[in-house]
């Protein structure tokens, strides 16, 4: 309507102030409004329709001329007698709201129109340019068909729900896979424990008894002889075999882990590692008590430290390693930092198929499947930091 006023004002300024010109401008504007896909209504202060475009006829709402004098509820729901009709309630609310100069919107699926409609009502009280309607316009109402947009919205909502379902399914499968892998790792530890006990209680003890008998036989042979020399050589080889069985047993499952706990085991492992790899220094920084560490994590922590240090040892170069185990609030953190060239712990031989470091893959999997957060950071020439955090809640 503002555009109509502008057209009329322009023509008045140009001296075209005859009634025919004004009527022509009104007809041109009404023709343009009739082409809009929305139903446009001008309402008076009592909520009655003053003017309506011909889009109402395309919506099967009756002739535009016949709609004058109706209210919105009568126009859209001509046969409705329901006092609880949401459209009737909206218009009663809109009239009160529009009197303060605001606007109100209504959007709903209308079974009577078989459309999803959107109604926007705006208050309008100002005169229009130099041209005034004979009856003052109280409000402008726009009624649009948003069925297509609603269908797209519903499809998008369905797609989001399906995507959410797929994500939840994937998360459930991931949790199940982690639980199964954790059970597999636990079964592996139990099997290692059984085999280690078998080595210690079976082969280890048998070899020890044989060695004692060889030593006794050597002592019985007072004079030096070929037989005594042979027995002494066998005793030495037997000692080497016993040491090898003990090393295999400790690699499989150190008895200290079950007898004394993870802290004593880490101290033992650090001593053994330093004695074997003299070019590597290992420092332990323990900031947690034995009781602070859940039983389910003790074997995991030991295996991660074992894999990380063996990774470093494969380089064969000098390095300083610091192993830190601490409790921060309700989070247990294990950090292994080395000073090896280009990141010692992260530069061990890689898997030929994937190009990934096998030791780091093992550490990552143990961390993830035990519920930990795994991070590895490497700096060329400054070493590598492996950090695993477990929430204890």
UniProtKB/TrEMBL annotation:
Group of enzyme by EC: transferase
Species of the source: Dechloromonas hankyongensis
Domain Signal transduction histidine kinase subgroup 3 dimerisation and phosphoacceptor, first and last residues per copy: 191-257
Transmembrane region(s): none
All residue ranges annotated as the PAS fold-4 domain in the record: 34-129
Coiled-coil annotated spans: 146-180
GO molecular function, one term: kinase activity
UniProt protein name: histidine kinase
Domain of life of the native organism: Bacteria
This protein's UniProt keywords: ATP-binding, Coiled coil, Kinase, Nucleotide-binding, Phosphoprotein, Transferase, Two-component regulatory system
Catalysed reactions, as listed in the record: ATP + protein L-histidine = ADP + protein N-phospho-L-histidine
EC number annotated for this UniProt entry: 2.7.13.3
